[in-house]
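Friendly challenge for the regulars: who can give me the structure tokens for this chain first? No prize, just bragging rights.
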Amino acid sequence: MNNVIEAVKVNRSFVNGKETAHVLKDIDLTVKEGEFISIMGPSGSGKSTLLYLLGGLDMPTQGSVSINGTDLSKLKDKKLCAMRNEQVGFVFQFYNLVPNLTVEDNIALPLMIAGKKRSNYKERLDWCLQVIGMEDKRKLTPRELSGGQQQRVAIARALVFDPKIIFLDEPIGNLDTKTGIKLMELFREINQKYNKTIVQVTHSESAAMYGTKLVKLVDGEITSIEEITPGMQISSAS
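First reply, four minutes later:
Bragging rights claimed.
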């Protein structure tokens, strides 16, 4: 399998007045094509910061992050924005849907941002709706949907450009257990059936188990990386 993401000696610091907070310290992480990586750790361990660096939403203070062999720090802003919009997908804990747009319009937002003709993507939009099981709800607005349905729309939006990599930031953190399980099953299907590489940050041990590899992060450092096996017990990250 090819390496699709490579983080080498990644550090991220934030300066607040006279104090410097070292959030990530010498992170080395390789993600191979088709993997489903679950990143776990206590609150404040730097999980979301790492996810944003891997997806190009933020840049490291030191070190490098590459996607498909391209060092993200070498990209000019326009190309970096295009990469984030078209080559990777993001799903966040809060669905970030536009309230007055329909389901279909929300899914098509990345196309509009990229200046693409929506008519050229009709089959893709239909496919995205089919994947999330909401073909019959394409004309509804977010206020007419449950939380789980809104998150499904966010998932479809992340898929509209057919990216190879999907980043998930606590994707079921706002949902009840039953709905969360259904969504994690959907993510596993997207990973296995459609060969999408997935990197998720989660507090949930049960959600982490849907992945293929577990990365534990404590105080900004990776403490272990291990394959996830059926029936595996996740010990406390410490």
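The two ends are 31 Å apart (CA to CA). The first strand starts at residue 3 and ends at 16. Your move, everyone else.
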